[in-house]
Structure formats: structure tokens, C-alpha cells
């Protein structure tokens, strides 16, 4: 076969692969993809694909994580250049996974981290906190909603969680790497966490704006995805909160504790301050715990490993029970979380179940439910391969409604490679948990760990 024919054969093969992964997913049962990868290889594959969202798919000017990537190139809000601060925090950790797995080199990652931190230094900040969204080309705020026109302390916490993890990775490196660590330390020290107590109240507020001030009016209390915000706020060497802010604001003077069960599992904490639903979307077991290791972690309110593992188990048992009789739910198809839906973005969870599954829910739960998560992973890659694209599983789908879009969100792709790596090696957990300031914050709030010495001097 001459060179021209070989090229034609290769092009034809690639087209066949592309078409097979672009067809409607309900046709995949006609011809299953014969993936004979061993479990470890499959884990590496999904890690590489999701890592690439943050590597190849990054916004080019800033190096930051694109808020969304639509493979159909349809952006109804004309927001292709918008980057996400919290999603970038996830992406920073995903890039460290990329080094660990050999997808990129330490030096390549370092250069990207320098680009991102240089951008963050000049980007809009509000009392040290970054907004939820930034224009990746200018560094100016892109309002997330009408009055969300300033700092977002929760997204800032997710970003700082990633920055501190990067700093731990490079802290003993060469001169240039240590300069990066110094730059990250400066960014960390400039976040005015205690400003967001709204003139000294014993609670952290999610938002503040120079034009709309406290009008968003979102005090953060009761269990949700924001635990890491309180820990970092207590850990700050420059603008810390007091323990009272955690106990009275977050823990609601002890009312955060739950003695209820759901599907036979202890809930441990109340998932909603202003809602009677028993359980939250599964991203609550992921976002704060990308760096914060819940294994052996406890305080006066919770055993955090039991809390997070039970949440994943409850979601799995809910899918097996399938009380609303959604088509396809079961041991191979489970996990509800906030994601794209048939009409925009929706917060899916037991109690608010639209029949939409987001792969990140089960795949990011690998540390908690490895066998159940592996069943979901194998289903996606072996039986529903048209739900897989360049950057791994698409954001969400519904078998019942015969719906999916070839689209991705940073906050859903990011937890997948990170939590899988935590399951495999504990890499990100071990880096973040060794940070001296983090240990100070955990100690200050009364946390203890059976895995880590939280004495900041050791």
C-alpha cells in the first residue's frame, strides 16, 4: 500500500470513529464499542481526556479554565471567552494530575501556572476576592447575574484551594519554581476573608460588590459545597475569621447536625438550611474535598468520611430504587448533580430529579464508591460511547428524554481527574493537607485527623 492510500485509510478510520461518537446515544446498543482496557487503563483514559479540558481547552490568553466548551460551537450567551475562577482552581489540580500521569512535563505545567498567576494578579478583585467569571481576554469581571458584580468568596475558595496545592508541589523546587510559590502566597494573603462577614457578623457572605454592596444577601450556613471556604477563611495568615463565624454561621449553633437516615445511611449533617430535602446534589461531596481529605477527618459536628461516603451511597441506592421510574437508572447508571439539563442548567438531586444523569456525579465519587463508580465508567465507555467526546463524558444526558448535547462545563469536568487521582494515589489530598496554613485553619476550627498531623509546626 502506497503512502497516499495509507493516509486515505487513516482518514476514513478517523471519520468512522468521529461519526460513531457523534450519533444519538440510544443507538449504541446496536453496536457496542469493544473496549478491552483494564480498569487502570480506563481510569487513565478518562483522566487524560478530562485533564485535556483544562490543558488543550484552556482560554488561550489567560491560561484559565473556560467556563464551558461546546463542541457544536453554539454559545447562546456569546460567552466563549469567559473563564471561571472556581473551575480554574479545579483545573490547577487537574494539571498536577497530568504531571503525575505523564500527560505533560513538570516544566510544561509550571509555564502554564505562571501564565495563570500572572493573569490573576492583574484581574479584577474585590477586597482580594475574585469574581465568579472573568473575561479571559481582558481580566475584567463578567457578572454572573444581575447583582453578582463583585467578589465571589466561594469561587475564590475553590481557586485558592488549587493555588495552594500547586504551591505545595513546587515549594522545594528550583529558583523559578520558588518564585511561583511566592507569587501564589501573595495572592493567598491578599484575600480579605473577614471582610465578607459584612461588618463583623458571625457568618460569611458569598458576595460583595462595589456597586451593589451586600444586595445579593447570601449568608452561607448549613451544610453544602462551601466547607472549604470556612476552612481557608480560618486559615488565612492575614485576614482570618474567628471560630465563632464557623460555629454560629456555618454550623448554625449546632443545628447543622442531623440524626436522620436516608436509604439506611446516616445523613450526619443537615443538607439544607432553608429546604426540607434530605440530600444534596453530589457535587457537595466533591468541590471542597478535591484538596481537603475527608478520610479520618472530623470535628464536633461530623465524621467527614462517613458524611461524603454516605452521600454517594445514598445516590447509588436511590438510582437502584428509582422511585420516579426514570428509564435507565440502576447500578450502571446513577448519580445526580447540578449540570446542563433539557432546559438550561438545573440542580438535580433526589427530590428534584428530572431524569438527567451527569457523569461527574458517579465518576468523581470514586474514592467513596469505587465499585459502583467503576460500573458507571464502564457503562459509559462500553455501552454508551456516543456520550464520550474529546474531553471525556459529555456534561449530562437523559436516556428517558433521548437528550444530550456535546457540551462541557469546567466545574463538572474538573473533579473527575482529581478525585480519581485521589482514589488511586491520594496525590492532591496529600499535597493540600500538608500546607501549614491549612493545618492552622483546621486546628483553629477544632478539626482532627487520623491520617495527618495537623500540628502546623510538623
Which oligomeric state applies? single chain
Query: What distance separates the N and C termini?
Result: 65 Å
Q: Strands across the major sheet, in which order?
A: 1-15
* Fraction of helical residues: 40-55%
Average pLDDT, rounded to a whole number, is 92
Q: Quick one: biggest sheet?
A: 2 strands, antiparallel
The helix-and-strand class reads: mainly alpha
Strand content: 5-15%
Dominant shape: globular
> Taking Cα atoms only, what radius of gyration do you get, to the nearest Å?
22 Å
Taking pLDDT < 50 over at least 5 consecutive residues as the criterion, the unreliable ranges are 1-36
User: Could you give the count of β-strands?
Assistant: 16
Describe the structure.
The structure is a single chain. This protein has about 450 residues and is mainly α. Helices cover about 40% and strands about 10% of the residues. Strands 1-15 form a two-stranded antiparallel sheet. A hairpin with a 2-residue loop joins strand 6 and strand 7. Helix 3 runs parallel beside helix 5 and helix 4 packs parallel to helix 6. The protein is globular, with a radius of gyration of 22 Å. The termini are far apart. The N terminus is likely disordered.
Amino acid at each position: 500500500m502506497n503512502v497516499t492510500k495509507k493516509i486515505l485509510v487513516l482518514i476514513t478510520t478517523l471519520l468512522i470513529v468521529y461519526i460513531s461518537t457523534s450519533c444519538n446515544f440510544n443507538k449504541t446498543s446496536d453496536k457496542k464499542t469493544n473496549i478491552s482496557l483494564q480498569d487502570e487503563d480506563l481510569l487513565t483514559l478518562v483522566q487524560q481526556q478530562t485533564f485535556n479540558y483544562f490543558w488543550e481547552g484552556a482560554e488561550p490568553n489567560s491560561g484559565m479554565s473556560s467556563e464551558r466548551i461546546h463542541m457544536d460551537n453554539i454559545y447562546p450567551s456569546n460567552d466563549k471567552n469567559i473563564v471561571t475562577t472556581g473551575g480554574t482552581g479545579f483545573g490547577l489540580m487537574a494539571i498536577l494530575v497530568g504531571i503525575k500521569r505523564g500527560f505533560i512535563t513538570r516544566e510544561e505545567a509550571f509555564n502554564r501556572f505562571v501564565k495563570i498567576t500572572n493573569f490573576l494578579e492583574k484581574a479584577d478583585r474585590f477586597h482580594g476576592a475574585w469574581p465568579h467569571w472573568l473575561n479571559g481576554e481582558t481580566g475584567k469581571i463578567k457578572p454572573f447575574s444581575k447583582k453578582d458584580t463583585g467578589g465571589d468568596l466561594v469561587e475564590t475558595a475553590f481557586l485558592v484551594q488549587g493555588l495552594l496545592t500547586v504551591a505545595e508541589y513546587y515549594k522545594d523546587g528550583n529558583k523559578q519554581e520558588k518564585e511561583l510559590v511566592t507569587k501564589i502566597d501573595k495572592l493567598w494573603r491578599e484575600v480579605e476573608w473577614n471582610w465578607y462577614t459584612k461588618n463583623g457578623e458571625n457568618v460569611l457572605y458569598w458576595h460583595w460588590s462595589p456597586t451593589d454592596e451586600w444586595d445579593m444577601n447570601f449568608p452561607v450556613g448549613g451544610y453544602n459545597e462551601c466547607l472549604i471556604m470556612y476552612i481557608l477563611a480560618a486559615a488565612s495568615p492575614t485576614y482570618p475569621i474567628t471560630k465563632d463565624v464557623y460555629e454560629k454561621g456555618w454550623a448554625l449553633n449546632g443545628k447543622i447536625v442531623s440524626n436522620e437516615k436516608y436509604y439506611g445511611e446516616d445523613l450526619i449533617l443537615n443538607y439544607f438550611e432553608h429546604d426540607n430535602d434530605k440530600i444534596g446534589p453530589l457535587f457537595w461531596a466533591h468541590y471542597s474535598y478535591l484538596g481537603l481529605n475527608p478520610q479520618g477527618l472530623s470535628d464536633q459536628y461530623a465524621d467527614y468520611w462517613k458524611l461524603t461516603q454516605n452521600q454517594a451511597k445514598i445516590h447509588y441506592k436511590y438510582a437502584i430504587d428509582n422511585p420516579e421510574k426514570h428509564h435507565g437508572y440502576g447500578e450502571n447508571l446513577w448519580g445526580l448533580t447540578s449540570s446542563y439539563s433539557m432546559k438550561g442548567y438545573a440542580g438535580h438531586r433526589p427530590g428534584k430529579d428530572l431524569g438527567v444523569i451527569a457523569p461527574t456525579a458517579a465518576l468523581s465519587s470514586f474514592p467513596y464508591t469505587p465499585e459502583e463508580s467503576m460500573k458507571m465508567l464502564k457503562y459509559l465507555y462500553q455501552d454508551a460511547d456516543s456520550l464520550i467526546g474529546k474531553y471525556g463524558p459529555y456534561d449530562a444526558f437523559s436516556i428517558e428524554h433521548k437528550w444530550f448535547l456535546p457540551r462541557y462545563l469546567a466545574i463538572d469536568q474538573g473533579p473527575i481527574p482529581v478525585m480519581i487521582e485521589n482514589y488511586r494515589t491520594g496525590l492532591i489530598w496529600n499535597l493540600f493537607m500538608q500546607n501549614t496554613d491549612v493545618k492552622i485553619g483546621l486546628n483553629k476550627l477544632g478539626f482532627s485527623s487520623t491520617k495527618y498531623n495537623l500540628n502546623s509546626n510538623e
